[in-house]
Structures are given as structure tokens and as C-alpha cells.
Amino acid sequence: MNRLLDISVPKPQQNSLASALGRLFSALARGMERARTRRLLSQLNDQQLSDLGLSHSDRIAEMDKPFWR
Q1: Residue 45 DSSP label
Q2: Which stretch of DSSP H or E encloses residue 41?
Q3: Is residue 27 within 8 Å of residue 19, measured between CB atoms?
Q4: Cα–Cα distance for residue pair 34/8, rounded to 1 Å
Q5: CA-CA distance, 64 to 24, in Å (whole number)?
Q6: Distance between CA 42 and CA 35 in Å, rounded?
Q7: Nearest CA-CA partner of 54 in 41, 39, 40
Q8: Which of 35, 36, 47, 49 is close enough to 54 for a disulfide, judged by CB 3.0 to 4.6 Å?
Q9: Residue 38 exposed, middle or buried by CB count within 10 Å (0-12, 13-18, 19+)
Q10: For residue 37, what pLDDT is reported?
Q11: How confident is residue 5, by pLDDT bands cut at 50, 70 and 90?
Q12: Do 44 and 62 touch, CB atoms closer than 8 A?
């Protein structure tokens, strides 16, 4: 019977704000991870690149990308 008396309304603004903040945080975390892995890639020598199946030009192309891509 209490269910019939419950007239609470969900607050979509709070949910959408939390969702937007969550997406923003996730995007920033992905960007930081890309920047970190590209920094590590820049430190590899030619033998290590070869072991990964990458060329020097592959490394340069990857490092030229902005962190958000």
C-alpha cells in the first residue's frame, strides 16, 4: 500500500550531470593513458620497435597524434 502513496519523482538533472562527469572523467583518463603509452613508445629503440612489428615511421605517425585521438 505504501507504493501507492509514494509520489517521489526521479531527478534527471542529477543523473545526467553525474553521467556527463563520468564520461568526462573517462575521456580524460583515456587521453592520459594514450599520452603515457606514446611517451613510452618514444623511448623504444629500433630492435624493440621491430619486436613489436612497428617501424620508425609508425612511431613518428603515432607520436604526431594529439592525446585525444
Answers
A1: -
A2: helix 12-42
A3: no
A4: 43
A5: 23
A6: 11
A7: 41
A8: 49
A9: middle
A10: 93
A11: low
A12: no
